[in-house]
Design brief:
The protein is of the alpha+beta class and 278 residues long. It has 9 helices and 14 strands. 34% of the residues lie in helices and 22% in strands.
């Protein structure tokens, strides 16, 4: 292994146009750093592709990214180094409480994210934030997989379960939740703020793998749900007929010109947006 390489960036993409754009984007973004980009064009699943990419990698830090992610802040490599010296696994969205196969369903005060999406109006983006709190959220239990990064030791320890998740869904929750269960430090780092070209959809394929995930971790998820209910019940003096439910995830959003997003971040726009949740 060549330990002089800082980052191994692994991307699975069967779309040549997206793969080419992603390669060019990360190559420019990490210019000046010791890095490698490993493109997997024929992954039979994201778990299989990420495992294969990791086996070829040499970096101290491992990045797993979708092919439709874009960052506008030039300091991303420095941010990743700082975060991965403090945490084992990081992402841009996730939850501090996981009770089923949909991390966002944890609701407030557990779900955290800060994303930008292309707006239907050309040349604009829609910035969305959920979760009251700071830019960096620690003690996370599960992450969204559009963009994750980890130390090499963490990936070696956890790996991806290509047998159970032999498709393109729930690989991320399985990886990050097992990291949590094994005591690794996981964080959501919202100041990374990517532009994600797709919002995802809970179709029949996603539901199939959600079922596999929930079957795999049935005992742990049930225990988390019971613990959450007990905490909420102990925090109220009222006698409740039914356990108090988690509040729906509140989202605040703003539309911006795409070319103003970097300035929005630099001038504290993300902090102002999150303040609206308080």
């Amino acid at each position: 292994m060549n330990s002089s390489i800082d980052f191994s960036i692994i991307i699975c993409s069967h779309r040549p146009d997206r793969a080419s754009a992603a390669h060019a984007h990360f190559e420019k973004l990490f210019s000046g750093r010791a890095f490698e980009i490993i493109m997997i064009a024929d992954a039979v699943s994201l778990c299989e592709g990420y495992n294969r990419g990791f086996a070829r990698s040499a970096g101290r830090f491992i990045v797993f990214s979708h092919d439709d992610i874009e960052f506008v802040t030039a300091s991303l490599p420095e941010q990743l180094v700082a975060y991965l010296e403090a945490f084992d696994v990081i992402g841009v969205a996730g939850t501090t409480l996981l009770t089923n196969g949909a991390w966002i369903s944890a609701g407030d005060p557990h779900a955290f994210a800060l994303f930008a999406y292309p707006d239907p109006e050309e040349g604009r983006v829609l910035v969305k934030v959920c979760g009251r709190g700071g830019m960096v959220i620690a003690r996370v239990q599960a992450l969204d997989g559009c963009f994750m990064a980890a130390t090499r030791a963490a990936v070696e320890q956890i790996g991806f379960d290509a047998s159970t998740f032999d498709g393109f869904h729930l690989y991320d929750l399985d990886f990050s939740y097992r990291a949590h269960l094994q005591g690794l430090n996981i964080a959501v780092c919202r100041d990374l703020l990517p532009i994600h070209a797709s919002t995802g959809s809970a179709d029949q394929h996603w539901n199939k793998y959600r079922g596999r995930f929930e079957n795999k971790f049935r005992a742990q998820l049930a225990a988390a749900a019971n613990s959450s209910r007990e905490i909420k019940e102990s925090q109220t003096s009222q006698q409740l007929e039914e356990p108090q439910q988690t509040k729906p995830t509140r989202v605040v959003q703003v539309r911006l010109a795409r070319n103003s997003l970097a300035a929005f971040i630099a001038e504290g726009g993300c902090e102002r947006l999150m303040a609206a949740l308080r």
